[in-house]
Amino acid sequence: MPVPVAPHRWPLLGHTPAMLARRAKFTDALHEHGDVVRLDLGPLRAHFVTSPALTHEVLVSQGSKFRKGAMFDKFQPYLGSGLLLSNGEHHLRQRRMMQPAFHRERIEAYASTMARAATSLAARWEPGEIRVIENDMQELAVTVVGETLFSSAIGRHAVEEVRRSVFTIIQQGMIRALTPTFVEKLPLPGNREFDAAIARMKSVVLQVIESWRTDATDHGDVLSMILLAEEDGARMTNDQAYDEVLTLLTAGIETTAIALAWALYEVSINPDVERRLHTELDEVLGTRQPTYADLTSLPYTTSVVHETLRKYPIWFVMRRTLTEVQLGDATLPEGAEVIISPHALHHDERYYPNPGLFDPDRWTPAFTSSLPRGAYVPFGGGTRQCLGNTFARTELIITLATIATRWRLIPTRQAKVKFTSAPYPTGLLMKAVPR
Prior knowledge:
The protein is of the alpha+beta class. Helix content is 51%, strand content 12%.
């Protein structure tokens, strides 16, 4: 059966907020044309998968027949062979070696760093002060990822370099991924800033790695686990460790910051959500700092996080077939580009009634069990599911709980959205009011 063709061609160039928002609306509606829809991205022909069942096949049940797609090729020169971009046996080997850094006992230790960082941020706010919330959440995400990655003295210097460079790398990297290759070779200011940021980051991270090699002590941080990990008696080289560290920095900061900013905004504009969140936090925490042990006692806070991840996920991810693949009625040849959109799946009315409504109450056990596999994929799935998914959820819950026990946030204007890799809040100005 021929694959249906999208009713309109999607232009490749042009990245204004309005244009990107229209593209998201366009892709959200593609399920009306079939479970697999052909989509032209400028000169690139892709196959857009719209159903949860086929999404699960791409990510999980037939996941071995796919590798990362065209968009990720553009990240390879500077992210190297970290988990985000590697494939095949190398990817599985690196994942096995990285996994212990995210075991429960490690996450429990990282949770104290998360709570301490969130408490420190909240303590700096002044009553009535107008905060740019997306900036605050970016700063917090950098602190948490940096301090859990690097706990040594030289590591703290690395955290400062992360603050300086990582958002240039993320933002300019996304621009490179979405524009023709020749653009990145032009002597543009953004290109120069990106190249300089990459050079600085590599220098300081390799210094931290070399310092760790000298004493070979487990400092209780992620880097220690990366460098102590062995597979068949072999450890990661410095370059392999660097690739994984940069992957964690770029993948673990912006997405978390976005989710935190939107969670705080949605709580602030939904009085019933705010009231119920505060009631739960007052009963469980009072005024104390949350701990990892509190997570199971905060079901409503957790539902707020689930709903935030549903409403504000990444826009799309790409895969490429390694062989001929059958997806439903569609036969895709080897080398075909495939697009999955968590944003489109999470806004599908067939599975999420009134998807534009922020509704934590939808996350009942009955609702969760009724969702088809592939309908909720904030962290992907299968062997490529985000390794830090539990880390991220823990950070989201603890940060939301820490701030909401101390402050109410009142928006001073409606949030603006800029689509990059995800719906990004811009100019999210909110007044801090003590509770």
